[in-house]
Amino acid sequence: MTRQVNSVTSACFNTLRMLRKIFRWIPTDTRKTVTHALVTSRLDYGNALYAGITIKLQRKLQRIQNAAARLILNIPRHNHISGHLRKLHWLPVNKRITFRLLTHAHKALHNRGPELINHRISFYTPPRTLRLTGQALAAVPRIRKATAGGRSFSYLAAKTWNSLPSHLRAIQDHLHFRRQLKTWLFEH
């Protein structure tokens, strides 16, 4: 995974370096569109696979997002960035990864995703009637090896899904779920 993150960061920083030369003459809305097309789309592509990566690798990805926001809004290098990310309505990288993981889990739990993913996660059905019965919890598989198994989609998606508040887990409509999830992630 380190090689993948290094490849993405290198490509994104090279793109940002080239964009910096022309962005002086481009309006902010166009900057945002171009940056999204060329940089943040690379961050988001397959980012559910980044779930469970080390904090060091997350920081590398976060630096790309920070540099992109600085370029779009023309912010000096040493100014604080988190308020500006919120202004752009961008989640931090670790929450973007969580968002993508949970949207895939929502699709899979409601049989709206690809077949390969739909079979990786399912709702928990207790052997007898419990208070948990109506809470839409995901079944967390047992893992053998803490290193590789702990990063599997089945395990991380179920654990992360179960950590959501019950009102989010109960949402059936996917677009409504995405909106509510993004709002919740911004607040927490």
Describe this structure in words.
This protein is an all-alpha fold and 188 residues long. It has 9 helices and no strands. Helix 1 packs antiparallel against helix 2, helix 2 (28-44) packs antiparallel against helix 3 (55-73) and helix 5 runs antiparallel to helix 9. The chain is elongated, with a radius of gyration of 19 Å. The two termini are 27 Å apart. The mean pLDDT is 87.
Keywords:
9 helices; mainly alpha; 188 residues; single chain
What are the SSEs and their pairings?
Blueprint: H1 2-22, H2 28-44, H3 55-73, H4 82-87, H5 93-109, H6 115-118, H7 153-162, H8 166-169, H9 174-187
Helix pairs in contact: 1-2, 1-3, 2-3, 5-7, 5-9
Helix amount, in percent? 55-70%
Structural class computed from helices and strand pairing: mainly alpha
The end-to-end distance, rounded to whole angstroms, is: 27 Å
Q: Could you give a short account of the major beta sheet? A: none
Unreliable segments of 5+ consecutive residues: none
Kindly state the mean pLDDT as a whole number? 87
Question: How many beta strands in the DSSP annotation?
Answer: 0
Beta-strand portion reads: under 5%
Short note summarizing the structure:
This protein has 188 residues and is mainly α. 60% of the residues lie in helices and 0% in strands.
